[in-house]
Design a protein that fits this description.
Strand order of the largest sheet: 1-2-5-4-6-7-3-12-13-16-17
CATH superfamily: Class I glutamine amidotransferase (GATase) domain
CATH architecture: 3-Layer(aba) Sandwich
Strand content: 25-35%
Order of helices and strands: HEEEHEHEHEHHEHEHEEHEEEEEEEEE
CATH topology: Rossmann fold
Length: 328
């Protein structure tokens, strides 16, 4: 009874509190006010490349959230984001939902928590789990409602992978650039589509850990497959380095935060050779590398201050128009 009274006094005094609920289908962690607030929001999207989180990206989302309720969703992991995000700005609360089963994606509490959020961030993990557990469930609608009410959304690593119209689903595990280029239809090249509809991410596929994991070759192969398979006539790709984020505002202008670069790719035409058990040939894919203070207009697919060049895949090997044929 004393503990209950102390807890009531704690909340009435306006202090921040941490609560946790562990269940079979999901875990819920709360830091801050347990009640729902409604704040004015501004839409925007954070595309984060994994590795070290970028403080400035979360501060940007907090500003666009109006200081409301910030919700993190994931399929495994802990509430480590709660104190980290809460300490970066003024928020009513930060909540983490660890959604462990497909049934959790229909839970009324889970759905209302997401819908009531003023900002949502999809953590890293395994995008194969996210597609398996969330695609085709009410969570799709709940996330789309957040986007529709013009609240910011973001993701890192696997969370980044599911934000574009097209997705590398990793349903059979990851794929490496050399494997993709050698055989664009190898068993690990699993693509999906239409999980979310995020402004300015139409006809687009994303990739993370870009330079560190040497993912240029696989991203170019994803683009080739999207066109070859008839999913789109022209495909676009964004690769983001670790410890780096692109902050896409309500007008589609992307600015860079963090210590690395981001790469914006566009296909010029259908691939010359994109067949099962044959190495990829795809000529003159355009690239704009963003670094420093350069920006990119996603609405018009045009960079300002970045470095522009083209990459060619010929019989599974990449070269570029940069000095020395460098691809990054």
């Amino acid at each position: 009874m004393k503990l209950l009274l102390a807890t009531m006094v704690f909340f009435l005094a306006g202090f921040d509190a941490t609560t946790a609920h562990a269940g079979r289908d999901y875990d819920h962690y709360l830091l801050g006010n347990a009640g729902d607030v409604v704040r004015s929001t501004t839409n925007g999207t954070v595309l984060m490349g994994g590795g070290t989180d970028v403080d400035a990206a979360f501060e940007w989302m907090i500003g666009k959230s109006g200081g409301g309720d910030f919700v993190v969703i994931r399929s495994t992991g802990t509430d480590a984001y709660n104190p980290y995000i809460y300490g970066l700005g003024t928020l009513d609360s930060v909540e983490t939902l660890v959604l462990k089963t497909r049934r959790a994606a229909s839970d009324p509490f889970v759905l209302s928590t997401i819908r009531n959020a003023e900002a949502v961030f999809i953590a890293g993990g395994d995008q194969g789990d996210y597609i398996r557990l969330w695609k085709g469930t009410p969570i799709e609608d709940a996330l789309q409602d957040v986007i529709a009410k013009r609240a910011p959304i973001g993701g890192t690593s696997a969370g980044l992978a599911v934000l574009g119209e097209f997705i590398f689903s990793a349903s059979r595990g990851t794929v490496y650039s050399d494997e993709a280029l050698a055989n664009p239809y190898n068993r690990y090249m699993t693509l999906d589509r239409d999980f979310l509809a995020v402004p300015f991410l139409e006809s687009l596929i994303t990739d993370s850990h870009f330079d560190t994991s040497d993912r240029m070759g696989r991203l170019i192969t994803f683009l080739a497959r999207l066109v070859q398979d008839g999913w789109t006539e022209e495909s676009f790709g964004i690769g983001v380095d670790e410890a780096t984020a692109i902050l896409v505002d309500q007008n589609g202008i992307g600015t860079l935060a963090g210590s690395g670069s981001a790469y914006f790719l566009r296909t010029p035409s259908p691939p010359q050779v994109c067949q099962r058990n044959k190495p990829l040939t795809f000529l003159d894919v355009s690239v704009c590398r963003l670094s420093g203070s350069s920006t990119f207009d996603l609405a018009n697919w045009q960079g300002s201050g970045g470095t522009s060049y083209s990459i060619t895949a010929e019989r599974g090997r990449l070269t570029s128009t940069q000095p020395g044929g460098e691809i990054y």
